[in-house]
Amino acid sequence: MTTSPRSLAVLADNPWLRFAARRLGQLLISVLVLVTASFLIIHLVPGDPVRAALGIDAPQSLVAARRHALGLDDPIWLQYAHYLKNLVTGQMGTSITSGLPVSEVIGQRLPATLELAVYSFIVSVGLALPIGLGMAVLTRNGRRRAAELSFTSAGVVLAAIPGFLLAVGLVYVFSVQLGWTPVAEEAGFTSFVLPVLAMALGSAAVLARILRLEVLGAMQADYVRTARAKRLPSWRIYLVHVLPNALTATLTICGLLLAALIAGTVLVENVFAWPGLGATIVASILSKDYPVVQGIVLVYGIGVLLINLAVDVALALLDPRSTIRES
Q1: What is the pTM of this model?
Q2: What pLDDT sits at residue 12?
């Protein structure tokens, strides 16, 4: 079955198809750049990963045999070609230190990282929405300047504290001094409390400030004035008319927030000895386990790219005019 020139012209004029093709092309290019950059950066780091894995006392013949088995004695361009070929077939290599497939190592650790990131995102948004909306209502039209100053100051302080430093402080207070939560490791619901708070508080502070500004802007729109003129209940005006329009602009920030939370698990996981990808990548860097580091970097990077793609699609669905403007 062939496609007529007229059908092709119709497809070419469809802004949604052009939008999808453009975003897909950008995603593929970004993934290729990510793969290439991760491969080159890891292989340009000085040191012999096989010697590090086998120990300084390992015979040179054993080190050479191991390097040959892993293909590390090939030219770097050939290693890169083999790496791309293996990725296409779903193979991410073998861990130098454990001898396990990298995909298996990542599969064991990925669920713990996803749980931590998703719970942190839910808590961040769950805190930011009511706080941001509530502060916008309380401080609209320049009211309650003291409350606005306190809110802004607290937000700046929380956002400025690094996640790992906040994690250490939370451990000292709630685990060491009060004994309310476990100090480290994944051991039930209570073990999630401190890592999630360490990652969520700063993000919630940033998102609440942004949401407050968006809500204040939406309150000045004509449709809100019309809703007030109709004497609609205040809760209906804020939840039905103001909040959805403010969330449209905030959605991009939420996508960036989720991507940042996923990346932020690296430091927080090491503070709490969390059995996720963050702790694994640090251990793999120290042991120069190139395949595992490359695999985890790809998982983090592709995860961020997919989140950005999802945000673009969601924004296009909420505002279809954006696809036409970009065409």
Answers
A1: 0.73
A2: 55
